Records
---
Amino acid sequence: MFQFQCDYTEGAHPLILKRLEETNFQQTEGYGNDIYCARAKERIRKLCKAEDADVHFLVGGTQVNFTVISSILRPHQGVAAASSGHINMHETGAVEATGHKVLTIPSEDGKITAEQVRALYEAHWSDADHEHMVQPGMVYISHPTENGTLYSKEELTALKRTCTALGLPLFLDGARMGYGLASEKSTFGLEDIAELTDVFYIGGTKVGALFGEAVVITNPNFRRDFRYLIKQHGGMLAKGRLLGIQFDVLFENGLYFELAGHADALAMRLKEAFVKKGYELRYDSWTNQQFPILPNDHIKKLKKDYSFALWETVDEAHKAVRFCTSWATKEEAVDALIRDIEAL
């Protein structure tokens, strides 16, 4: 059985495991106050061209999302996000559990626009009863989106400009950021994300690490007491160096982008195979997630040898499914899948 279910089925890149083993018996200060976390933070700041940015390491994406969002919002405020956004669809109400509503914006492809953000904001403030409603307090996006789609630099710039004008902080979920930045259709880099958002995070869990996400706070207004809030939300790892070591390795010699590029290249081979076979694609993804629309009987045949996700029902005879490559996907797995696609 070949796994295309998600991009975190494997453990970690061997170089990370090697470094963890090499440093296993070293004694360091806890809670991220160690030399490895310090070095990893400096690497990230330099890549972001944001020398004064705050960098914090947490264990997982959901933990990051509700910690960051609840740290910024006031009690009566909510966070605007695409209806398909991860915080709305796949985090078991974690944000709502902190007391903050997710204010959804309709989206066909997973992205939201500057115009939609302004419309949401103006609809709230033009309502005579706005004091009885949850106030928009920040904007959440992900890059890539849940549907594998990418923001362009122009779209991100427009979002940032509108958010700044309206006083809404912009937070970017980067759980799969590597796969977005390595895409052949990417129009910006890490330094642009640092410039065009207030807070973002770099996902490690899905791009070669055992676990871990790096939160980068570029807006100084949101830095104060963030470590207090990490601790309060159960996110402060006592053996924090385990996170720092992993990000130190990932960004030491460009490994992060190399691994992401590997996954994207294999996903493009799958995309080509699906299109060549005549399948429509639910989303035009240029990242490691691909969403072909398959006949139900073809899905049943592929399920015998491959694990992949059922995404949505298109009609009685067809479903959109997701095939997800990762930093660790092997060429032979993709070769086998392509042969079986061609044979359907």
---
Amino acid sequence: MSGHSKWSQIKRQKGATDARRGQLFTKLGREITVAARQGGAGPDANPRLRLAIERARDANMPKDNIERALKRATGEGGAAELAEVVYEGYGPGGIAILVEALTDNRNRTVSDIRNVFARAGGSLGEAGSVAWLFETRGLITLDTSGADPEELALRAMDTSAEDVKVDSGSVEVYTRPEALEAVRRELSAVEAPVSSAEVAKVPKSTVTVDARRAGQVLRLLDQLDELDDVQRVTCNADFPDEVLAAYA
């Protein structure tokens, strides 16, 4: 399991606070709107939309917010067209970072992202500069609260998942992107508590960073993630456990 995955879990826990919940709902709503525009407003026939709605529900997003996001997909409320853009860059120590965004103003978004990289001692790269270091996979994280991680991992191995990893009490289940929903249902059938499920960019290998540099990278990831247009941030850093504990 990459340190980035642990950062993502801690970030989700922090996102439960009122201060961040509004921004999270905005990002989830954008994903619902774009998914519905691309594949239709019926979740049964649109896997991306179905997953977006499930993620919104997992985050306790109100039903009214979900319905408004679906209405925006049909142009109601004068919603702006959102473009999907992936930016690539380098963090301190040459850490590879992918930034996925939904934006109605590419110039604004790339300027904001470039400034965050520059202030953190990183740099925005050219298209294709780091994308090859990542692969698209289905990623399911299990909630280990009050459960034995090894037992949960054994249950996950009984599904059609491609890989199951246990590290520091966390359990991650990897699938083919198109099999994500099916594996999620299988996990529910064996009573494995799903904390999150998404199609994600996963690093093919990770780079261990020292404690000093890890703090710099974590701050950069947070600052990128806090940008309104940014939907998801991924890196190939592996952080020391003590740094992540302090960060949490």
---
Amino acid sequence: MTRPPYPLVPTYRRRVRPARLRRRRGLCLFGCLLPLLMLCCGLSACIFPLLITPGPVDVVIMGVDARPGEGYLTRADSIMLLNVTPWRLRVSLLSIPRDVFIQVPGYGEQRINTINALGEQEAPGHGPALLKASLQQSFGVEVERYVRLDFEAFVAVIDAVGGIDVDVPKLIVDYEYPTADGGVMTVRFEPGRQHMDGERALQYARTRHQDDDYQRAARQQQVLDALLHKLTDPRYVYTWPRVLYAIQAHTDTDLNVWDMWRMGPALLLGWSGREGRVLQRDDLIGMAAGYWVPDYERLQPWIEAHFD
């Protein structure tokens, strides 16, 4: 028998090895392209809403002083007016301290933190509508949407993103911080950058006995800044589903899917350059002891420039 000029090799090896190599190369190529495809999809989702030039959106954000099971028949602990102009990537935020008096349809001048409760007394769910009407009558801003959340929702959203990092500017000690059972406790914040979970961030946003409501409103904006900063960090994209679930499960809002889709890109891309303002004593006119109303003449140019 004549010996072949090459060694005999089982034919299955010749067939299997190239197939494996092709599969590995295919998987490697897919692994390289997948992040690129996801990035392209994300960019498309951000850019497309901007191309169709959606109009600006004004939203009032209420943090209500409600404990678990109390519902929304309660006062608002925090009130912020947010404007998002998608095609300009512009974000503006105005905080109104809770003790400021504004005009309320049918009630005259009332403390702004009582408006939600007044509306809920008229009919369940009417608190946000009355607050919208009051803001339009007083500031001339036609608010389209609202977001209403209680303490439980605040804690859930902060915890869903894994906590936030806040730079505390000064020592804060509050010996009369209210507890859920109606008592008080002492809370203390050392100056400097520190990580806060939901409960700790709530304490930071609510404490006011050491200073006043104006400083507290500034801290609330600071907490919101820290939350949005983390949400816009690509390293924390994986927390988005948890955050969305927390928002859906614990907040009351009339924002719809289209609103979120047209606002999302501007919030993510424009928040770092947002313009914020907290009403201070200089923005108010004292009518009597503890009775402060906005200086509308002073505020109107800023409001007209930042709200539609």
---
Amino acid sequence: MPTIFSRIVAGEIPCYKIAESADFLAFLDISPLAVGHTLVIPKKEVDYIFDIEDELFAGLMLFSKKVATAVEKAIPCQRIGVAVIGLEVPHAHVHLIPLRHVSDINFSRPKLQLSADELEETAKKIRNQFVA
């Protein structure tokens, strides 16, 4: 059965898309830790990030770097934090989280509740900064 992320890639479930290439997709987390919290995934469904073949893994990190640069330009923050947890969805993904404080990357914190309009406006700001 396809993961929720594979269903997003297939267009069955909508997302707030940031950027896309032939192999990768970046979109906003709908339950973010911070405004601009973005997920970057390989389109190929692989459960565990360290099971990804080397070339695809390197590509995922390089694509994540480009997305992080766009997030940092669009969202006021000190840095972009990076996390790979891999327990919630069995599809490898990288979290890019705008940070102002170390506690901003604490996944046990309550998630933000943003409206569809707020998410779309945030996605638009980041998309406008993305350079392929």
